[in-house]
Amino acid sequence: MKLGADHVAVRVPATSGNLGPGFDALGMAYAMYDDIEVRTVASSTVQVEVHGEGAGKVATDHTHLVARALLHTLDYVGAPLAGLRMTCFNSVPHGRGLGSSAAATVAGIMAARELLAEPESMDLNTVLAIATEFEGHPDNAAPAIAGTATVAWQDERGPSAAVLEVDEDIVPTLVIPRAELLTATARAALPATVPHTDAAFNVGRAALLVEALARRPELLFDATEDKLHQPYRTAVMGESAEILGQLRASGFAAVISGAGPTVLVLSTAAQLPAMDACLTRLLGPVSGWKVKRPGIDTLGAQARRITAGHSR
Ligand code: HSE
């Protein structure tokens, strides 16, 4: 496959996986973005400049996650591998369960797709498949690609996703700690098997959550209960486990965002004053927490050409 551009830009949203009961399946996208600009260059080197989240911490060569995903995608479609100059303007916090690795992976794949002479020849299911190969699970990649909220599933043909309806009155609140947690650590805390009764409990709640999100926000509290992952991760969640428990004890539909440690609260706008009073009380004694309400992203990953070029 040929390249058809030499300068592209991509924007990918932050996401929460799981949303409580939908372990590795449900996800939501936020209007909080990583913006990445990519130029192909004649030399075969990769240079990455990082601003914002991850600056000074992440790799700035070909091992940078965006570059790895981009080069892997060019290789996958048989396009010529290119040298790259990339600039990343990151707003998605790292290591907080807000989908920073999915955002980087999807950004790399979408940038590679946009560099192709015929980007539409790679469908979005292929983007999801490559992202899931990197991530191991599709629950962040799917909303990062499609926006709003998604349910993703996998079979022998690979991953697929469907976009869910979300009532316009629903507001996600992100309660973000300073502490980071590796997804690998949170996944290592999970047991190999779970009781059948707990699986049945989560099936009901996950199905209910689809309805609660679409048109019955009053069901969000019941619909966000989980027995498959959050209880097993309490020991690695630090203060987030306590904040989560207190928010739920106060009647708010709080869950751990993805593998944590950010706490996500799903509510209606009318519940926000009471939630703010509760958060002020809970976060007063602990330090370094941020509360954000970025709103739901409805567009998903966006890519555009800045200049055409290349006939390789
Ligand atoms: N579903 C994943 C997990 C999300 O909970 O481990 C992590 O990105």
Describe this structure in words.
- The protein has 312 residues and is an alpha+beta fold.
- It is 33% helix and 27% strand.
- It has ten helices and eleven strands.
- The strands form two sheets. Strands 1, 2, 3, 4, 5, 6 and 11 form a seven-stranded mixed β-sheet that branches.
- Helix 1 (65-76) links the parallel strand 3 (46-52) and strand 4.
- The termini are close together.
- The mean pLDDT is 96.
- The chain binds L-homoserine (HSE).
- Residues 17-18, 23-24, 137, 139-140, 183, 186-187, 229, 258-259 line the site of L-homoserine (HSE).
CATH topology of the largest domain: Ribosomal Protein S5, domain 2
Q: Which whole number gives the mean pLDDT?
A: 96
Assembly level: single chain
DSSP summary: helix tally: 10
- Structural domain tally: 2
The number of strands is: 11
> Under the CATH scheme, which architecture of the largest domain would be assigned?
2-Layer Sandwich
| Helix/strand class | alpha+beta
Termini separation: 9 Å
In percent terms, what proportion of residues is strand? 25-35%
Cα-atom radius of gyration:
20 Å
The coarse overall form would be globular
| CATH class wording of the largest domain | Alpha Beta
* Biggest sheet overview: 7 strands, mixed
